[in-house]
Amino acid sequence: MSQAKIKFGTDGWRGIIADDFTFENVRRVAQATADYWNAQPLPKRAIVGYDNRFLSENYARLVGEVLAGNGIEALLPPVAVPTPAVSYAVRDRRLCGAVMITASHNPPQFNGYKLKADFAGPATPEMCHEVEVLVDASPVRRGDKIQTYDPRPAHIAVIKKMVDLKSIKRAKLRPAIDSMHGCGGRELEKLVGGTTIRAERDPFFGGVSPEPNGKNLGALCTAVKKLRADIGLATDGDADRLGIVDEKGRYVSIQLVFAMLLLHLLRNRNERGEVVVKSGNSTVLIERICQAYGMRCAEVAVGFKHICQQMREHDVLIGGEESGGIGFRGHIPERDGMLANLMLLEMLAVTGKPLTRIIGELQREFGASAYDRIDMQYPLEKRERLMAHLAANPPGKLLRSAVREVKTYDGVKYIAADDSWLMFRTSGTEPIIRIYSEAASAEKVKKLLALGRKTALAVR
Questions:
Q1: What is the pTM of this model?
Q2: Rounded distance between C-alpha atoms, residue 30 and residue 32, angstroms
């Protein structure tokens, strides 16, 4: 019987629990990780974190045992902890890296294995490839010397220094907080007050995926209206991404959140940097703001590891992605949903304005922006043919606006003369195609997504 192939995707190796994500396979990739770290001139100490998913603590202990059996001191938290806390521990404790057992925002039946490098951010594609090559290169060795370490206090201490908690408390803001049954727990509530919903562990996440988007944040929208909260703050399953609801109980596009955070850094905190980094499926508003402030905007492929690389090589003020991952200068080169939520609270506190007003002012100054995305089933074996067809046969227009540019470095993206765009990307592990669009109105976005769906189906 052949063993399953371990393949790292955009953000680690993920699989279905008890199908391909098994105890045996986790041990295999852990042994490969240990072999990789032992071949590097790095300290032989690492942390293994885990989220609230089914069996996550068991998988994490297995990884710790394998690391210990290979002479690497393994630190294991006593409870589920946020991914950014695990990443920060790498820098704080001078570790060779980290493993985080989480499938992030994926459905409950999935679990995953995120690899963090010695620079406290996502491992590079090259590092992940080296680990893949080492799978089954040596027999699994196990030990039992595991040290308990909770990375949360150090992480909380550093993000407290990065935001103006005094201004937040003086403003007497009332946030509604949604941890989506993930490992964010009640950490934000402890810092800024408010009321937390879905704070307790539930491996089924209340029947929805722990992805903080409009489809999954209905409970937070209801809580904001019921509590008359000033804002709704959400974190995903491993608390490295955020989702926002305005004071009227309406979901706010993460594209607008990214733009607001950039303006907050520039105007309210008077910060500057060499460059702002955004993923290719992020809003054009970032480019417009950068142009207004004389800053360079770098666009990279989807996956925070690409933003991380820019943060390591350049003076990046902020880096963000469409899925809600935001990273900040002066912190680790990693997305941090807890810090991003606190930055938004700080913005409300120092401006004294409600979120809806800030959004309105942003769009009046830099242009109207509406955004949406659809995920549709699409056979894995046909994805290469589809992407090749889309790249070779761009439309002359997107609705009534001429297509002025086609980008193919990460999927296929059609950009129109009026700055509206339509983008196609396939999943590397699931039979799914993701179609993204941004335009000046929600009605136009809806039409563009319908066009995208029709185009994809025509190729099948």
A1: 0.94
A2: 5
